Amino acid sequence: MVATDTIDTARVAGLPEARRYHLGRWAISIVVLVLIASFIRVLATNPNLDWGVVGEYLFNPTVLDGVKNTIVITVLAQLIGIVGGLLLALARLSANPVLRVGASGYIWLFRGIPVLVQLIFWFNLGLVFPSLTLGIPGTGITLVDIPTNSAITPFVAVLLGLGLNEMAYMAEIIRGGLLGVPPGQREAAASLGMTPLQTLRKVTLPQATKLIVPPTSNQLIIMLKISALASVVTYQDLLTSVQLIYSVNLRTLELLTVASIWYVALTTLCTIGQSALERRLGKSSAVAHHQPGLLARLFTGRA
Amino acid sequence: MTDRTSSAAVPKVSIVDLYKSFGPLEVLKGISVNVNTTEVVSLLGPSGSGKSTLLRCVNQLETATRGQIYIDGRLQGQVERHGKLHRLKAAEIAKQRLGGGMVFQQFNLFPNLTALENVVMPQRIVLRRSKSGARDRARTALERVGVDARADHYPAQLSGGQQQRVAIARALAMDPSLMLFDEPTSALDPELVGEVLSVIGELASTGMTMLVVTHEIAFARDISDRVIFIDDGIVVEQGAPAQVIDNPQHDRTRAFLKRHSGEPSPICTTSPTS
Q: Is there a domain that residue B143 lies in?
């Protein structure tokens, strides 16, 4: 043990603070910068990759059509996922055991089958059910009867495949968010005379949203990219569009680069939207969390 | 026990032979208590004695295993039809809860809303009050508990004492005829207990019917018309504060009070009773 009076405390207090040099940090940064630079050089100077062709096709009408279709399918499939996922999450949390087991079964099944298999299945639904019939059971009355192949267009197949699959994942995300709201919140709402539905709408969901938004943005970004699977059922998304072009002009690498640029651009938009939304939802926290800036977020690897 | 709707002598709250079990654990073992209009009743007892569970049964946050609760002579949570008792639907229970405001140990303010919005929102949703009407009522309630200056702060920006006072204002703005307090100061730092107790004490002196679960013995003596000592799920003894707290008849009450003695009253309320 050292007693304070044996140390010259006044002298120590007067010492200046030494500068830190962060040598390890500098070394790693230089390695990373060299790697990035050589990667860019390889891409830019490779004679097999003609950047002129990339520029030429970046705003080609067929490509832009593909971009539009990719956005439409991503947004609609994610919407189906969110709305259906909310209903599934509520069913899983319900007091009715049949609803609970049914929702769990759905999630189990759809998370268990690869989404590519689901897409192909929906596209070929006509092989299992030649016609789709809607009637009143037990009466023999038929309201609708159409051949399956005319109802399940590539668009419908993609929407069903991606949307129904997404529901299973969103259900778990939303259920997690709802369970993250402390039970005291529901009790307080109940004690004020709010019904379970009013409590869900005004108390539980708004608070759960804060927990649901980050993983949902992640899902949206994943959706944007797995929508490329639509190419296997001949729906004309972004990937299909560039495939159509390079199957004719054989500029495979250049057109895949065009598609990649668009995918990265759309992902960037999603990330910007996510930060804006999170900042808005975070305004009630008293302690300002240190949030990395936009650039930092883009380059620190979200999916 | 029949539905007693005759006017004069109807107690505000009537608890009749109430039992409550959580699985194999029997928490309430046959409790019967009446609370008259404008009466302030404190429930004392050791932790786990069942007093909080009793309060939560009164507000139907818990469903009793057996026994009935009447408020203003109206059976709570159940309805008699064709000689049987049927459980009410959630929306009907929500309507019954309107008469009683509840204040929780953990405040339970809505963290995504400001203090003012916390008080406004339930009025808008449940009572369908106009925007300006709800805001006026909220301002009055926040002023009454002394946090009107912080109306635009979020709960995380308020001290525990301020949060609990906003929670009281939120309950008061619904114009309840009965207030239930479930250990309202147990989660507070010692120096913040006084400001919450003085608000509750002020409320008691204005003729609000109140049922208070508390560990603040001195406070209970100050504000209560009657003190009920509960241990192990039954009422051990009850009576005027002076009788139960200063001259307890049962060993269990004496043992409990001995453990909690020596704590001075954190406030000096102008008590309506003593």
A: yes
Query: Which secondary structure element, helix H or strand E, spans residue B103, and what is its range?
Result: strand B100-103
> Is ipTM strictly over 0.90?
no
Sequence ranges of the domains in chain A: 67-300
pLDDT in tens, A144-178: 788 877 778 899 999 999 999 999 999 999 999 99
Contacts of A187 in chain B (CB under 8 A): 61, 104, 108
CATH architecture of A67-300: Orthogonal Bundle (1.10)
B72: in domain = no
- Which of residues 245 through 284 in chain A touch B, CB cutoff 8 A? 284
Say what the pTM is.
0.80
Bridge-partner residues for B21, per DSSP? B26
Closest CA of chain B from A169, distance in Å: 26
Beta bridge partners of B228: B43, B238
- List the single residue in A with minimal CA-CA distance to B59: A191
State how many domains chain B has: 1
**Gap between the Cα atoms of A129 and B158, Å rounded:** 62
Degrees (nearest 5) of the Cα angle B147, B267, B260? 120
Residue A114 vs residues A174, A220, A258, B96: alpha-carbon distances, Å: 22, 18, 27, 50
Q: Is residue B170 part of a domain?
A: yes
The domain in which residue B136 lies consists of: 109-176
Does residue B13 lie in a domain region? no
Cβ–Cβ under 8 Å, residues B181 and B219: no
